[in-house]
């Protein structure tokens, strides 16, 4: 889909095992099932009786681990691993996780999925106190905070540290004696605990990786929880004074694998319901429905069922796209050479087609798809998007950091339609999205974060706030004020915040 | 699908360009679109003013060409390339095509998709005359025959050679002055001519690769045709005295990409019709339809439309499966660790599911799929196969060379059902297959080869015949005699043949 | 020679450039000339207008930089680089330098040749204050100290840090605005400043790398000096209150390249003088002199000249030994298969040979050499070593950290002779060594560190002292007491020290 | 030395083992000792009960075999291998040997060191008979001839083939049942048989590789001999009617490793005698002798001994030069950046130096060396070359194929001296060379080929003759006529030849 093709990415997938002699190999398979969450780099660290052994590298997991000996070297009965998403600027080895730290009292490894909203100021503060940083990653910040906590146990120090960082995060931590997972107080990112038949425990970003290693789901980690796995089993610690579920709705829309369940909701089924709802909200006379492969196939099936239109394969994606180093020249691009997506002339020629896509980011991919279909002879192209218009950036771990790149932040639906050249265009309503996903929580939006659509951020934006406000048109600022107001009573947090969302206020702070 | 997962493979894809300054780069993109036809190895040869430059290697195209400089080295305005399928035994560099030959009168390169039925005896005969062979491939045989022809022009020599080899083949040949394609008299394998906007010509195994490089289809190469492309354009030569279309039906069933058209029939659409017909032939009461990804999704959509059942994603395939070097240990396999396919518990749990797959080869994959779905809680699993039972080997380029490995050669449908553990099992009828594909030819089966299903081979089997007959149960031999009878009048062929199929007799020889 | 073959290694080579548009390429060539100082890993960091870009990897420089694009990516007019020596245990990517640090006030890179004697206690102290470590390397310690200094300028902070660390070190530091080199107060490791024709400045471990990049030597960096290179040229800062030259004598004996000059003394010439002196001290009747290639060829030439014996090539070293991954099996070793060194039968057969080697570490290589020569028919083998017996470990950067592995710590010369099977054995005297090298300083031993031979360490041993003393036989402790005595007046250093050598006391502290 | 630095190369090294379970591993070690004979590519073929398994690749042996599994795959008790020299044009995978051929009656592998003088016409003739060629190599020609021989046994066919090819060659052939070596009738290239302690036999280009695998030399293969090794031991067959030893003198001058013996003469010792003789022939007043590393060190030792001058290390070669992909830009070269050779200022400054080099090819390297030494302050540079001036190309396996590139073909010694900028220049006399090497044969020049120095080719030049004669100045043609005259009675050879050298006539044909 568009988001996939325009390379808007999740920040990473994490996976860990405690208690299996094949821990690093299992971590490899777990990460393999999470490869869609990051293709820039990968790493695994194993725990060989307290000596943590690491192997990391740039590229796909199969490129980083291209030799049996690389797995065999990672001895031990516990391991954690990470796949990292691709961005142009930071494709540096130094940012590939897990990070391993060597202390006189033992090695520690740490990896991370998410984004901290107060990372810049925390880094600045830590640097002023003498801290050094080897990467641009948020991950080192947490380790600094852990080591600087005055408390005595690792768990207490970790609680201190987790209460200092803000934003979206799922952490995995490995030491000689335990594997620890931790989730932010809003649960922006998914994290699940599973158990294998032999009693080993597994932590994973998505349930699809549990299935791959034959583990059963024990429980989803809840907002503000720490899970400690050691030789005595697992235990849950609630470290955050206030929590409220705001799981990223984009996980349902396109990040997560369709066979994953998040808080009990299957991703494929949610997408299919989005497609069905979209058919109800924005019906159009046409000859067929086409899903943009791979992530919009579920929604297309839903649209087809409700509309009664046949569900056709009018667009085909090359299943071998990963990481080619050979690129078309500009001339070849102009000649029409393209590698990822093809329209199927004999399917669409002369037909009125409804194209289902999961999102529109910059609009260029949608325009490309419409053009492909028209060149292949489609009589009409009706674009239907199974989520609302993306208008606001994400600060919790999705790589949309400014509104500038979002076409819906600047253009009306009619203007977008014109830009992409479609005969009609419609988006799923926000209510439609929330109801299609159907989380049963009593938190706002049923427990979803939908800030990219309406600006209602579940937390203060901390270091990002000033720039964000400056980027908004004035009328939007006013509208956001409906959600947000200044709140000086923020608990346990020394950093200033001036935007507090409607539901953040209600849930996290109203009691105060 | 089963065939895909059990690694029954096509023998290769071929692609060539004449007349573009980016010829080798375009060939790369063309091969990239044909990667599904072979993952063992790949190679490209370019024509730099008569000096043919080669780069070949083991693995995926992206692994063989992992560096811009590897494409840049392949200078020239013409190129041909090849992707090769994977088998355990022969993963030798020496077999990777195209092969390049160095003569005092110029370099020549050659590559090949298919299988010759008289290759062993031709090799023996050539060796007795002093020929030397660097590979196990059929490809060198043709070059020997070309060079040994007493005629004077390359085209005449090529005609001689092509009339000597039997079986299924599509060849690409590159010299300083021309690019030549050639197809066997039955057209077992597909080959298409396209033209780019700048006038360059393209030859490709499938039309999907034409789309990728922005070429328009000019014509499908017909059985027994040679196409010569040079600086004056292209011309067609008919070299075979007798021809009759018998295009491999497995191309439609699962080899070809869904966006390819073969003799005017779109592959996706054909598959969808197979699924629809299957729903009519073998309806069953159920809650949902599931396609085995990726190749059975079209058939599943067809089944769902006709049956009125919802089309769900109950099985998910990891899209990053290609070429991992890390494998589960036997212990991990027993613990349920698996990398390719997952069942989606929350979709199938408690449901009666119809699973659409395109074929059953050994039956082990089908059994695995049924087991996955039952473990995920499916109440009933009804397996529906969108092609007839596979009972006979192929000698024209598909890697099924003995009946031993085919479960349907030994077991009844009910026995297969029991083996795979499904609640019911049905296959598409042969008529259903032929009518669903819907080729409009007047050749037997509308121009399809369906020998894997009924033993009606369109040609004599030459060197393979004796072993094949020995492998059959006696009653089957009698039944095949209905198709085949001895024919000593075979034209222009010094090799003995004793099986001549029903339609081979009718079309190729009866007139003689 | 023995040391080379037994893989006793220097800890690294460093090289940097300021002011040339080809800075990273020049650094590559500089490191290439320093490859003999470390083969485990290599890295280069360039300064692209303050953004420091890094490329590091395991293996030889040619393996780490196997592609032009890897150098081209390292843009900028300044760069520093490092080659790292090989040890079995720590061949981890995380230890490969230069290390790069990312601060809000700019990036910094740091690399290091040497060893700190108070590193463990400094790490412990820093960790107790919250510092985190990503490696086992001493290098991170200095960066922590720099960033924790309360002073305001980088230079002041660096001076603080350098006055806190003890031992042997040569550091290179790169920031947006300057390249800085620093040497320990004893100058254990060499460091030289050069200037290129275009005015660019170069810092290098050895002068041989200056020659390779066409730079002229400006000056050797002196003990306790910092050299700051920026766009205004270079300036020297003396940061240490007390200094005394104790350059590592092993640099002359076998580490440094023969074409390097150290404090004005050419290494080849020094070695030749060692050989000449050895001939005077330990003459023997023989037919020829043989040098163990490559590092003992100079000494052999000197021995031959004085003794009047012909200098023959009786031992040949394979010049392609670097980093093979294929090893002989134990069976093959027993059959006599060997890869590095061959004896030349037709040269040595029936002859009385004097073999010149630079050192004996464990004795196993010497025994192997004697055996090779005897098997090749040598009538007598007289081993002559161009340095005194190695009896004590080094704590300043050479990989001999315990006395246990040193045969001369446990055996007399006669016992060693017996062990290696030579007909006679003699070592160069300590006076002979000092006079052969011929440094003109008034420091003890002319400015050399000769502690491996006599235990007279130029500094306190700090964290290594307790284990070292425990490892000594009691009579040796007494003898060392002749050199060392307790000194509580150590200036500006909070760490306890109880061994202070004879000359350390005299020079560094007595005045205080 | 110059030849080494100017990359005038030998064509390859060969090595084989019969009768050891570690055959491929031993072949690896043997080739490792022959790496100096070729760095472009390498390959090994093993005999696994008649199935020949091959691994070949571009680059150094350590690059081609970078993984244990690559050797382990090459199972079997026999193996042959090849290292190939580097040239710009033909660095194609297709030319890397051994070549493996697949026949119905068994696999065969073949590799080759040398050059055939009648290869072009043989290829042409074979092609006219239908032969096909996959490479530019001479090696395929022999296999064609073997397979086309009408005789019945492999040995008879091989004799036929060897009597058809002309020029310099050493072949290794591997089949299921035997390993065969063969040498041309002049023995241009060296080949030796050795035996391991366990009874396995070894064939090697040089004896240095025997030493490395612990094998004892059994005998040098003589001109015109075939050696057949099988499970019954070895036997020698003389296939050539006329033979006369003309071993390449360049093997002694610089190709072979100093620890090798050729026909009983140690290479180092021969070189040392050349240096001694040179000192006698061309003494000069000077302060020191310097050998150009590595290949002229032996000659320098000889010169020093006779002249009484000290032998100094005034030039140092980087021991890690192999195969870097990063090159200095033109600007950097002009700034004096260089990677291979350094002059040692503190050794040569102010001194009169005699530089010993083994040969002058184009003169550019000698000029570079003189310049390096003068820039380093040498007062006088006297160049002494331990071989006569190179004036004529080689057609038997050394990569000097035209006289154009040879400075001595066009300039007098004084003109060369001027070109290279030396203060004096002298070459060893031809008599001096022949006597220094000291082969005891009664063949012309003691059994050496010295054609590069005087044009007296030991055989007809066949296909190369016309171009060679055309390239000569007329007076030279007349002088060569002293050696050569037309001979129409050439035995058993259908190809025309018009130059027959003095000694070729005398020895090979005079009887006719």
TrEMBL record, chains A, B, C, D:
Q: Which CDD domains match?
A: GPATase_N, PRTases_typeI
Which catalysed reactions does the entry list for this protein? 5-phospho-beta-D-ribosylamine + L-glutamate + diphosphate = 5-phospho-alpha-D-ribose 1-diphosphate + L-glutamine + H2O
This protein's pathway reads:
Purine metabolism; IMP biosynthesis via de novo pathway; N(1)-(5-phospho-D-ribosyl)glycinamide from 5-phospho-alpha-D-ribose 1-diphosphate: step 1/2
- What HAMAP family has UniProt attached to this entry? PurF
Catalytic residues in the record: 12
Name its species. Answer: Bifidobacterium dolichotidis
Paste the cofactor note.
Answer: Binds 1 Mg(2+) ion per subunit.
Task: Write the gene name.
Answer: purF
Cofactor(s) needed: Mg(2+)
Q: Which Gene3D superfamilies match?
A: 3.40.50.2020, Glutamine Phosphoribosylpyrophosphate, subunit 1, domain 1
A molecular-function term among this protein's GO annotations: magnesium ion binding
Tell me the domain of life. Answer: Bacteria
- Function of this protein? Catalyzes the formation of phosphoribosylamine from phosphoribosylpyrophosphate (PRPP) and glutamine.
Q: What is this protein called?
A: Amidophosphoribosyltransferase
User: What keywords are assigned to this protein?
Assistant: Glutamine amidotransferase, Glycosyltransferase, Magnesium, Metal-binding, Purine biosynthesis, Transferase
